[in-house]
Amino acid sequence: MKWPRWTISLAVLATLPGFGWAGAGPDHLACYKIRDSAMHAVYTAGIGGLTAQPGCMIRVPATMLCAPAMAAGMMPVPPSEGGIGKPNSFTCYKVRCPLALVAPVVVQDEFGPHVLQATTTSLLCAPNAGPTDGGFPASGQTTCWGSNGIMIACAGTGQDGEMRPGAPLAYVDNGDGTITDVNTGLMWEKESNGDGSIHDMNNSYTWDQAFSSHVATLNGTVFAGHTDWRVPNYKELISILDLQHVNPAVSPAFNTNCTPACTVLSCSCTQGNFYWSSSTNHSFPQDAWLVYFFDGYVDGNFKVISNNVRAVRGGS
Q1: 234 secondary structure, DSSP code
Q2: How far is CA 104 from CA 65, 66, 73, 114, in A?
Q3: Cα gap 43→45, rounded to integer Å
Q4: Out of 46, 153, 269, 279, which could bridge 54 as a Cys pair, Cβ 3.0 to 4.6 Å?
Q5: 0.70 exceeded by the pTM?
Q6: In the chain, ranges of CATH 3.10.100 domains
Q7: Which residue in 173, 276, 292, 176 sits closest to 233, CA to CA?
């Protein structure tokens, strides 16, 4: 069976010679056929995009490189406007460009170091329009309420439940005790229920112990093959709230089959309780920020108090 090879997309290339464009920031992607110096290797992974696809095969070396680009002076003028900012998706078109000399680019990604020699421009990817431009996660709320607390029809209210700004919440269970947020790219630790493991949602930690005990144990045991687990910051932690749910206020990806003694390979759990962030309350530095996953309430509390913690990795 012939498998498609991995395509590397590197935003950093916008700052390298030969990539990017003077003036306004690049909003397209230009994809180049390349020769890659990397050694042959094969990986498997679950990939979350338009749908969750477990068991995908990734082959190294790479065959294509995509860099931020501008499409200037387009003739005739396209019939409609595209996306703005950092869109969630692109539509790619075959292109034919005059030959141009491009210097080799030295990069490193999760598959190791590469020396990439671009040969020809193969695709131009245009940002898709839509309300999810920017990839900022939506709140998940789809219903509306009046000031008296009674549910009302959303039409014309302008409430979150009607407008639903941001990217629809989407997650991929990687099958190894972790969940990947499709919008942010962050990988989250799953939690179990009463199995006595480091992932048990019944464990609690002071703020210092969240770093020195919980995260240190995950990294020391190379949990899910990674050693860069950390305590999420304030904004990362609130990004996994789903305000259409309560106790816990999370999407089903974080609350599925949570039965007694289940493990992170068979269930996904969340306490309806406070979870630590890594962010200190600047106005009162003895406190750190927490998120109350019962209903999404955010508060600060003394760092010496014990609360839950869920580790994360990735981001920039």
Answers
A1: H
A2: 12, 14, 27, 10
A3: 7
A4: 46
A5: no
A6: 171-313
A7: 276
How many Å from the N-terminal Cα to the C-terminal Cα in the chain? 36
How far apart, in whole angstroms, are the C-alpha atoms of residue 240 and residue 1? 38
CB proximity list for 117: less than 8 A, separation 6 or greater:
34, 35, 102, 104, 105
Beta strand pairing status for 41-48 and 52-60?
antiparallel
Burial of 227 (C-beta count, 10 Å sphere; 0-12/13-18/19+): exposed
Please state, in angstroms and rounded to a whole number, the distance separating the CA atoms of residues 133 and 81.
13
Look up residue 14 and give its DSSP letter: G
Q: What is the amino acid identity at position 235?
A: K
H or E segment at 219?
helix 216-220
Angle at 104 between CA 87 and CA 40, to 5 degrees: 85
Least confident span in 13-17, 89-93, 288-292, 299-303: 13-17
pLDDT at site 56? 92
Question: CATH classification of 171-313, choosing from 3.30.1380, 3.40.1000, 3.10.100, 3.90.1580?
Answer: 3.10.100
* Three-class SS state of 57: strand
- Which residues, listed in sequence order, are joined to residue 308 by a DSSP beta bridge? 275
Whole-angstrom CA distances from 233 to 220, 255, 289 are 21, 21, 9
Query: How is residue 200 written in tokens?
Result: 């048990």
User: Rounded CA gap, 266 and 24, in Å?
Assistant: 48
